[in-house]
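Incident review: delayed structure delivery

Summary: a single-chain prediction request sat in the queue longer than the usual turnaround. Root cause was a stuck worker, restarted by the on-call engineer. No data loss occurred. The affected request and its eventual output are reproduced below so the record is complete for anyone auditing the incident later.

Affected input:
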Amino acid sequence: MRSHDTLQTAASPADARAPFARVVCGASGTRCSQIAVEQALEVAGGDGTVQFLAITDVRGVGANRMAGTGTARAERALADARRAAREAGVRASTELRHHADPRRALVDAARGSDLLVLGGHVHSRSEGMFLGSAAVYALHAAEVPVLVARPVPAGRRLAERVMVAAAGAEGDRRAAQVAAAVAARAGGSVTFLHVEGPHGPDVHRHLAEAAADARALTGAEPVVVGVRGRGPDALVSAADELEATLLVLGSRSLAGLRALASVSERVGACAHCPVLVMRDQASAAARFASRSSG
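Output delivered after worker restart:
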């Protein structure tokens, strides 16, 4: 890695608006799910709302009865989520549904929201798809941004060291805006991880525009770090080395790769820190812009 700028991002106004007003979060009672609940509440803050959704998937009858998340466990998970929301001062609702495919139910429920938050293990993308990981499935299928919630380094908050995977492309700007908005609410820092390699002629302009957007929201110049190596592996290693508390990237952060080789899906599945994957949705971008200017 090569640092191009060592100026740290300073704390910014505490009243910065939430980048995601309507958040859907899966709740199942597992430790991963509990982390997702905590991070969904942190992202929503006092001006956002969170819908906690528990999916029961008990199948069969008698000797063939198999339970993934049973009703009693789902109800306890929702009760815990409601309590956490009250303590955090965040508006929240809860819903219990039955569906044979919880992964699909969560992705479908998130349509029309601003963000889907799911707990995620650390594993390869192919392993995650094979095991039915809801988070990995959502990275591939969701139409809205997805936050794969994982533990942050001890003693730190989600927004403390926010890093943006930047390829010097047009899509960097929205990722930078959201990353800076998350960091601004908690006085965190913003770092751009620029994966070096063959890029288009406008790479420097796109990076400069993204950095300007981050600076406008945080009040300080973001750090830019050059990253060399294979895209997904390089990003994961850089995030580990710099102790990222959140890694933000677009769904097409490195252009030209097929969907099944998506950088965002591979990083989302394999990173050790929380990962926020944006989507190229004009409607979502318009909602974000209207809240930022309001």
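Verification: Residues 2-15+152-293 form a domain with the Rossmann fold fold (CATH 3.40.50.620).
Action items: add queue-age alerting; document worker restart procedure.
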